[in-house]
Amino acid sequence: MSGSNGSTPPLSAVTTLAPPSPFPITSAEPWSSTPLLQPSLPLPFNLTATKSKSATSLPTTAAHAIEALASSLSSHVFVYDDALGSGFGQESLTWGMEGKAAKGWEMQARPGAGLVLLGRLGSPLGGSTSAASQGGVLTAFVGPQGLGLMSQTLAQLPASGEGGKLVLQVPGLSPLPSGAFTPSLYSLTPALSGVPTDSENLAVILSSTPKESVALAAAAYSVKQHIVHVFDHSSARELTALPAPKPLGGDLSLATAFDRLGVKYFDYFGDACAEYVLVCLNTPLAHALKAFLAQTPRVGLLVIRVLRPWDEVTFLSALPNSARHLHVIDHVADTFDRGILYDDVLGTVLSGSGLTHSAVHKVGLLPEKLVEHTSRPAQLIARLYPALPAPASVHAQAQAQAKKLAFYTAPNSTLQETIAHTFLLSSSVSTRLLSAIDAFSHVGGVALHRMLLHRASEDLASVELPVDNLFPIEQDSADFVAVADASLLKTHAVLSSAHPDAQVLINTSWSAEELAASLPPATLAQVEAKHPHLYTFDLRKAADSLIALDAGKEEAQEELETVLQLVAFLRLYLVGAGGETAVDKVVRAIYGSFVAGVALPDVLKAAWGNLHEIVLPKYEPEEKKTNENPLKYFEFNTIAAASVPAAKPAPVPRVSSWHEAAKLLMFRESTLVPSTTDTTEQPTALRPETEERTYLVKCTVNRRLTPVTYDRNVFHLEFDSTGTGLKYAVGEALGIHGWNDEQEVADFCKWYGLDPDQVISVPLPEGSRGARHTRTIFQTLQQVVDLFGKPPKGFYAALALLAKDRPDAMALRFISSAEGASMFKKLSEFDTVTFADVLRMYPSAHPSIEQLVELVGFIKPRHYSIASSQAVVGNRVDLLVVTVDWATPSGPIRYGQCTRYLAALKEGQKVTVSIRPSVMKLPPSDRQPIIMAGLGTGAAPFRAFMQHRAWQKSHGIEVGPLIYYFGSRHRSKEYLYGEEIEAYLRDGVITHAGLAFSRDTNKKVYIQHKMQNDGKMLNTMLAGEDEGVFYLCGPTWPVPDVYEALVKSLVHHGEKKRTEAEEYLEALKEDERYVLEVY
Ligand SMILES: Cc1cc2nc3c(=O)[nH]c(=O)nc-3n(C[C@H](O)[C@H](O)[C@H](O)COP(=O)(O)OP(=O)(O)OC[C@H]3O[C@@H](n4cnc5c(N)ncnc54)[C@H](O)[C@@H]3O)c2cc1C
């Protein structure tokens, strides 16, 4: 093939590539095209339709299936924010909003949060107006953290059946303070602290594989009890073929349901005469341990699938009588935590069983260690049983059996899904695809998709091992590695995952020489050590050549690109099965004769012409440079919530109608991060009362810019918008949906006699088609109702009608009348009273909470100019804010509603935002001069302008002059973004600046003075051919002076009369060349 000189001939039909795959798919595959089940969108499994079809399966993820089950089998679905943060519940909310399934409600996981559910279940605590009280089923998606806060709810659940039924679907994943994730379930201990261990009213069941998660999630709706179903988060996100859950019937006992499913409360594995038994919750750790203990003498493993009610008799019967040492593996919060299992097991053993001579040992696993133990169970076993011979693992065998493919792509890639779908069409291969995102180690983030292919006939136990066990990221395990962005090879240890002789496909236009010259020594050393088979694929060139064939094909570019990559992949994968001919057959079987309107032979020709095998020149290690950056390793640190209700479906095989349905369902959620071209929306459920599209972003920086001793607090905020689809243009403003102060709300509730945890349903404004908010009173007053805003006259008039005491009624009527205008003015403008103040002033006017909500109205979002350019910062939005506060004549300090909220934001806190278009648009031509003038926070949009111009310059784009006038009081205290401005001046991004610090000298200098000095330049820019654009942003008060300065420059230097200069500026306004954004 290619010579050692690195030449890169195209592949030919006779090319010998890597050894053939052990079980390649072939064109002779019995493509499954019979629609075995007919799912009704948007749900993957229509239970009634599956009565007699036991062996049917559908490509999907367990997470999606669980949401679909919950939405179709519940009357209401509550989604707590910690579950949402783990990517669960978004679809349910969307379906509910679209009227396709149970209504969804967004909830906050905080102390007392679960009481809402209790209220809806019609318990004495919460009233009984709910649908659930008529026998409905409520589902809540809540993470382990939220579950830990629900002890009161779980302890007080009404008898199931009487007030409806509750199903908590709990994805087992929580964030660690480090930003990583843990599957620890330590919060089960506080959650179940008030639930008697033998209570039949609530069952806690655990599942650990995708298939089991769907089966148990469905069973939760067939049994009488309230259910807490904890399922494994990681495997639930795997895309794989899942059987439809068995319809079990209704109102069953848990035991009957489990019998019908063929699963047990407790599973025992290993030596039937074991002396040592590990006792473990049904989590991926159990599978990992099972793989080691299955063939190890003297040791066994007991896995708990039903934690409540704790069934002592069944537990004892599952244990071998030979057991002398029970090691109870508990998930614990810290070293003082007792865990949930140990007491149950100890109590059972001591309760007079035949095992009273057995010792029960506690093994507490801390949250941050759990992933490590699951990945390396052998270490845990060796630590527990040092005297026993090393356990025999089935890992090696299972690892060897699986074919392992790794795809490094941008987070929004769909390639891996298309490839997975291709395999999912095959009945002889079982396919698993697990995606993870590292948002931090690469600009724009990087996704690693691990795909495991097993023979469908293989032993299920090995197939069920966690992906992390079978396919560890950093070990030499991948048979095939695809790298969508060649620059990753410069920064990341991508080749660490490849085993020696693996196939590595790099998407690049570089030749072998160029690659060798640009790769860092560490990557070259890996190539030298592992001898991978390297292939380059010039996707861009291949796609362009097809588009050139037909000028109308631009729109289909994405589909063409995906298919081209699929073809390149199959060319390498199918080499043993016939090379190019086999690829032709497979792709034709899936896509037919045309791809996006292009004839298949043309697509294949374009692919073959741009796919090359390369050999890098021999690497001669030089002396290691000390400033060499080490290669980065991939970290799983981001789950972008599946917040996209209708993401653009990836191009996928078109075989049959049910596949079409399946792919639409599946791709929607498995696209973890919306694509950059995404035009879809986050649900308006975040703030359903607003018509604008809203996004939930995370505060990552809140930094005060002025000294703490200074009387003005100007601060810089950064929000991470990863995964939200938020897009903004330079100059646009961000709408912040701020909350009221927590303490003030609590004080008001107490004074007004309100139960903060009671749930109320608030109608949304007209035009919302009868939609309502359902939240606790506390949430409603904190997040929705403008209780501390400024009351209009009508509020006094409405209260007058409700006042019970005559003096109150008269005073209120007077203030709202024409005669009371000066009283109203005093209250409004001097005392600046709030709605809450007025209620306190006239306490006999005491509207009900529902009336109050209606009378006061909703908090309005405040807008802030965005201080960043998305081309530069990516998934980030920056703001520059000054706090608003003022003293009232009676003494207390008042705070602006939104700036108070923003100033108190902590890193990590989520904020609901929207985008508001703005007049502050960049001029149509990059060469037009830009003149920017701002005071204080008026600097915000100009920072975005400057960032953008700097970016343009760095990309070789020719830009016009940039003039910046900025004013504040003191240079040392309020030169906002001063260091950046100085750097831009130095680099020539800002061509001229007029900085006016009014209190630094005795002579007060303002921006208009600086502009007057520059009169000649301003006249040339504004009146000359270059068509300069003038912008003023910030407080309103300098507007007349700035206007005057511009008039003067036109009069003095442009020889215009004053009236002509004024008319000229008016005309500039019309042309959007004199732009004001003042507030
Ligand atoms: C397009 C645009 C861009 C903007 N960009 C920025 C920016 O980049 N940075 C920035 O800091 N700001 C910006 N603002 C201003 C911002 O939107 C807010 O107006 C400002 O932050 C104050 O909001 P707040 O909720 O804190 O104050 P509010 O609660 O809205 O109070 C604002 C004022 O209303 C009056 N008031 C409030 N309550 C009462 C009452 N009960 N009785 C009588 N009077 C009352 C007070 O005079 C108070 O000063 C921008 C505004 C617009 C329109």
Give a verbal description of the structure.
With 1079 residues, the protein is of the alpha/beta class. It folds into 5 domains: 57-124 and 134-260, Rossmann fold; 264-392, 3-Layer(aba) Sandwich (Rossmann fold); 396-614, Pyruvate-ferredoxin Oxidoreductase, domain 3 (3-Layer(aba) Sandwich), CATH 3.40.920.10; 654-673 and 683-863, NADPH-cytochrome p450 Reductase, Chain A, domain 3 (Up-down Bundle), CATH 1.20.990.10; 930-1078, Nucleotide-binding domain of ferredoxin-NADP reductase (FNR) module (Rossmann fold), CATH 3.40.50.80. 34% of the residues lie in helices and 21% in strands. The chain contains 43 helices and 40 strands. The protein has a 9-stranded mixed sheet with strand order 1-10-18-19-17-20-21-22-25, sandwiched between helices. Strands 3-2-4-5-9-8-14 form a 7-stranded mixed sheet. Strands 31-28-35-26-27-32 form a 6-stranded antiparallel sheet. Helix 28 (742-752) crosses helix 29. The longest helix has 17 residues, at 557-573. It is globular. The N and C termini lie far apart (69 Å). The model is unreliable at 1-55, 123-135 and 640-689 (pLDDT under 50). Residues 733, 789-790, 828, 832, 834, 862-865, 880-882, 884, 886, 896-899, 937, 940, 1077, 1079 line the site of flavin-adenine dinucleotide (FAD). It is an enzyme of class 1 (oxidoreductase). Residues 692-924 form the FAD-binding FR-type domain. This is assimilatory sulfite reductase (NADPH). It comes from Dacryopinax primogenitus (strain DJM 731). Pathway: Sulfur metabolism; hydrogen sulfide biosynthesis; hydrogen sulfide from sulfite (NADPH route): step 1/1.
